[in-house]
Amino acid sequence: MYGTDEAGLRGTDPRGTDLYERLKAYEGRAATTSGVGKDLVNESMIRHWCEAMGDTNVAYAGPDAIAPPTMLQAWTMGGLSGHGAGPGRSSAYDELSALLDGAGFTSVVATDCEQEYLRPLRPGDRITFSSVIESVSPRKTTKLGTGHFVTTRMDVRADGKLAGTHRFRILKYAPGAAVRKPRVSRPVPVINRDNAGFWDGVAEHKLLIQRCEECGTLRFPWLPGCGACGSAEWEAVEASGEGTVYSYVVMHHPPFPAFDPPYAVGLIELAEGVRMVSNVVGVPYDEVRIGMPVRLEFLRVDEELELPVFRSLASDESEG
Questions:
Q1: Considering the domain 196-319, what is its CATH architecture?
Q2: Topology classification of domain 2-175
Q3: Which of the listed residues 121, 237, 300, 302 has the most CB atoms within 10 Å of its CB?
Q4: CA-CA-CA-CA torsion for 70, 251, 2, 105, nearest 10 degrees?
Q5: pLDDT digits (tens, 9 = 90+) for 152-179
């Protein structure tokens, strides 16, 4: 994603001091100490999370339920009102951001996060947390612009015992500083041993989903095991291609040379009950609606890439 800008490793601020050395001085400083989660780990939030994610794993319900591991950060969030300016809040992170702003790196984008799980969280656990500014990178040049990556590490504890760590990385950058190179080809999907069968089906103009051989549960996207019963035994079955728009977004930004925004990306509920993300075609982006019936077709993007998309049946009726 990025490369080192050798000429900018030792950038200077307007006062002539070494900017990078000043940024590095913040490494190891606390961003939050003695933070306390607003709520105990609870069944309601777990249920809402699982419903939003479509996760029906039996481990997340019932008297012995645990929270989904990926909820780790959710229990530390302050919501719209925040955690306030209590004694656990440090000014170091705000000072670092202000220093970067003053040097011209006024834009920000989240780049990635990493989580490590050490013990399951259960309803009733009291969450506490602390965070530290783990690293500030040398100046980097990216497609967005030139700036510095800032990584924070949060340690999350349940009833005083370390439950996991959450690393969050942002890029503070100067907008428009990088030269964009034109890109004409669509991104190619990553094909691995878990989803190769799906793409083999696409090559034959078939939409294949998985069916657990133990409990019969259908699933998509392709996974190595059943989320309902845990079985690793499955078979591929061909979907009918009929479905409805369960939800959708209209993409305006960021623009990519290979795409022509605005365009609609839909969460399609297939007739078989599973859902998949794909483009909705055959109707203007601002006419896509939840509940709209759609039918599968295959779109040839280039000589090497063909993708399953869904055409609005309303467009077929208007043409007829």
A1: Beta Barrel (2.40)
A2: Thiol Ester Dehydrase; Chain A (3.10.129)
A3: 121
A4: -100
A5: 999 999 999 999 999 999 999 998 744 4
